[in-house]
């Protein structure tokens, strides 16, 4: 079978699909939920540790706090030119009507570190998806939600649908726990991502997979992504070439801050078996 991955054709046998595509079978009855199902329980709240990650020597520094790295590595989704976000004090901040941003280089399989901070002093009546929304999007399609999901009252003070809260694979999977810090505090995502693979006919051969640590806590563990992120409908895959999608940071109209964004490209080869 020929598979497209980052511009090269890789020949693998069906056992790859067997190894990577078949999950375990749960013995107990599993409850299934609709997209954005409000009866779906929110994850338990817990307290994360304080450490955040610095880039290792082989990482690409996508944003190190300087306007130079922002200009070098990112462009505006609005018109494709210079990013008009605020850059100060080692962070960048979503600016009104500036639009989202995306990397200039494409990335497929990767380890990605992003730090973000939700604004303090937001009116407590502003909740749900309006409460400091942004997102980190892989390959133009797959969103890890950024939202202020910090709660001191088991979500009575700040609730949204579980598959749309912070660190959710938006519209698909809630995080296993809510590791959110308070607004005004810096938080981190450490993401390990394996791109989906399609054969030459555009058929899905392997779903994308993702592991996410929120503030150092695993909230998704080698999880299958169900398809392109969608709102109020079930995600599905559309074929795309490997290595041709970009990383985006979403402008959802809220002044979130971001800093210390770095990435390591991960090879496909170690996971292919003959
Ligand atoms: Mg979002």
Task: Please characterize this protein's 3D structure.
- With 274 residues, the chain is mainly beta.
- The protein folds into two domains: 2-32, no CATH class; 60-265, Jelly Rolls (Sandwich), CATH 2.60.120.560.
- The chain is 5% helix and 31% strand.
- It is built from two helices and 17 strands.
- The chain has helices spanning 15-21, 67-73, and strands at residues 2-5, 8-11, 60-63, 74-76, 86-88, 91-93, 101-106, 110-117, 134-138, 142-146, 187-194, 197-199, 204-206, 209-214, 217-224, 246-249, 257-265.
- The strands form three sheets. Strands 3, 5, 6, 8, 11, 14, 15 and 17 form an eight-stranded antiparallel β-sheet that branches. Strands 4-7-16-9-10 form a five-stranded antiparallel β-sheet.
- The longest helix has 7 residues, at 15-21.
- The chain is globular.
- The termini are close together.
- The model is unreliable at 6-28 (pLDDT under 50).
- The site of magnesium ion has 7 residues, from strand 9 and strand 10.
- Magnesium ion (MG) binds at residues 133-135, 145-146, 250, 252.
Write the layout of secondary structure elements.
Blueprint lengths: L1 E4 L2 E4 L3 H7 L38 E4 L3 H7 E3 L9 E3 L2 E3 L7 E6 L3 E8 L16 E5 L3 E5 L40 E8 L2 E3 L4 E3 L2 E6 L2 E8 L21 E4 L7 E9 L9
Antiparallel strand pairs: 1-2, 1-12, 3-17, 4-7, 5-6, 6-17, 7-16, 8-11, 8-17, 9-10, 9-16, 11-14, 12-13, 14-15
